[in-house]
Design a protein that fits this description.
Number of domains: 1
Shape: rod-shaped
Order of helices and strands: HHHHHHHHHHH
Number of strands: 0
Largest sheet: none
Length: about 290
């Protein structure tokens, strides 16, 4: 019976080994394909202006800003202008030393403030178009491809050297890594969408902080709003830098070392986690650079 069972055992062992290897390679291909799709989505998403990302939402936000927020900003602007006029008249020896230049200065500042409030939406969109230009230019320099097909092609020889028990352990690890990759992809997608929602909220409320921009005492509100706009726009550039760093790290991966299969799985998952963490930090980094708070 031994001479009959031996070939059967070898066949079953070979079949099981082939099944496990195919399953592992399929998991790894799905993991790296998933990561590559996510990274490409980041590069595409951060390079879009508010009107390009979703035209319907952009139209709604524009209507809100112009029909609801702008009248409120006009009331605030009227209060700020009257307050500044009173301050100008009373600071010169209780109106005993008033000249025409002061009134001309006040009229000019008020006219500039009115122009800024009525054209706030155009100014905001111009800021994001500038940021989009920088992001698009950087996309020509930054490699956003995380394709690891070259590494997967050399993986078969490594897997053939493992027994069925070891292959089963690797399969379990790749399954866990696949679940982790799905979670990372979900988090990154929420982060990208959250940034765009934040941009729309900044666009909608713009006239109110811009109404204070020309006033000496209240102007910090408008200045900080502008700095926050630039920080939010250029956050996309920092996201692109994160994508470029991640893609470069992924391209240097190899499965040729001892225990390279397991190491490669955890290394790729770790790089994905690093990318997710770095993307979360881009908002704070951009605000720190532009001194926005």
């Amino acid at each position: 019976m031994g001479f009959l069972l031996s070939p059967l055992t070898d066949w079953l062992n070979g079949w099981l080994k082939g099944f496990l290897i195919n399953a592992i390679q399929g998991n790894l291909a799905n993991i790296f394909g998933y990561l590559n799709t996510t990274v490409s989505g980041i590069a595409q998403g951060v390079g879009q202006t508010p009107q390009g990302w979703n035209a319907n939402v952009f139209t709604m936000v524009q209507n809100l800003s112009q029909s609801v927020i702008t009248p409120v900003a006009g009331i605030i602007l009227a209060y700020v202008a009257c307050y500044e006029l009173i301050a100008l008249l009373t600071e010169k020896n209780n109106m005993h030393n008033v000249d025409g230049w002061m009134l001309f200065k006040w009229i000019f500042k008020t006219a500039v403030a009115v122009y800024l409030v009525t054209h706030t939406f155009d100014i905001v969109i111009a800021v994001f178009q500038l940021a989009q230009y920088v992001i698009q230019q950087s996309a020509g320099v930054i490699n956003s491809s995380a394709n690891l097909q070259f590494a997967l092609d050399s993986l078969d020889a490594q897997l053939q050297n493992l027994n069925c028990g070891e292959l089963l352990g690797v399969l379990i690890m790749t399954n866990l890594a696949y679940v982790g990759t799905f979670v990372l992809n979900l988090i990154i997608t929420v982060l990208i969408y959250g940034r765009m929602v934040e941009i729309y909220m900044y666009c909608s409320i713009g006239p109110i902080p811009m109404a204070t921009l020309t006033n000496h005492e209240w102007g910090d509100i408008g200045k900080n709003y502008l700095k926050s706009l630039f920080a939010l726009g250029f956050q996309g550039f920092f996201m692109m830098v994160c994508v470029g760093i991640y893609a470069t790290l992924i391209q240097t991966m190899t499965f040729s070392t001892a225990g390279g299969v397991v190491q490669g799985v955890f290394q790729a998952t770790g790089y994905g986690l690093l990318l997710c963490f770095a993307l979360f930090k881009t908002g704070a980094l951009s605000k720190s650079i532009f001194n926005a708070h």
